[in-house]
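hiii so um. not sure if this is the right channel but i have a protein structure encoded as tokens and i wanna go backwards to a sequence. like what aa goes where. can anyone help
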């Protein structure tokens, strides 16, 4: 038992402290950056960066934006290393884009929800998450392979979410069928590749 092991509590506190320190460093810099991004239009006659981006994106994507919304969430989580930071940075942008394409408040809320879903998907390929998972299961040195394999379910995740979001927002049968096709394709892929595992990298590669 843990309380009987000499130094167990010290090791536990040390490991927890390292995790907290890593998260704290990321948030200390990320949160101010997000606030600058959101509040960038306060001291000038220009619109803030999220609103400017929303205007440009809505002009390109049009009514199809909800399909792409989860992709932005996933990209934000991959770059920032956190679904939370991705949502902080892009939620206003997502809502403003939804308003630009004439969605009502409830539909715009669905678009923001798709942002959060995409951010959760992006955590699959977030580098520090992959490194931590690799160390936990003894796959140090195979992080690149893990990310490549995780790209497949992440892609399914965001495509299925985007198709379902389009179906819910526009009540369109085509998008319900598209969602079913994506789900069926992924299940077929998983069945076809069942039983395949990654082996630990050789000691020389891991070092």
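sure thing!! here u go:
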């Amino acid at each position: 038992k843990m309380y009987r092991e000499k130094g167990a509590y010290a090791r536990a506190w040390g490991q927890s402290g390292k995790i907290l320190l890593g998260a704290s460093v990321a948030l200390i810099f990320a949160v101010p950056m997000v606030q600058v991004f959101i509040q960038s239009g306060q001291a000038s006659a220009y619109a803030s960066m999220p609103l400017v981006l929303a205007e440009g994106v809505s002009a390109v994507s049009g009514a199809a934006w909800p399909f792409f919304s989860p992709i932005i969430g996933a990209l934000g989580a991959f770059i920032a290393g956190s679904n939370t930071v991705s949502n902080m940075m892009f939620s206003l942008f997502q809502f403003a884009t939804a308003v630009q394409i004439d969605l009502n408040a409830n539909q715009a809320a669905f678009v923001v929800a798709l942002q959060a879903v995409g951010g959760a998907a992006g955590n699959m390929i977030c580098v520090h998450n992959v490194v931590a998972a690799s160390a936990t299961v003894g796959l140090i040195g195979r992080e690149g392979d893990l990310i490549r394999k995780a790209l497949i379910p992440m892609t399914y995740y965001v495509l299925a979410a985007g198709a379902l979001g389009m179906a819910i927002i526009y009540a369109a049968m085509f998008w319900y069928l598209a969602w079913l096709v994506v789900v069926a394709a992924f299940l077929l892929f998983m069945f076809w590749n069942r039983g395949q595992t990654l082996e630990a990298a050789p000691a020389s590669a891991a070092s």
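oh and The two ends are 32 Å apart (CA to CA).
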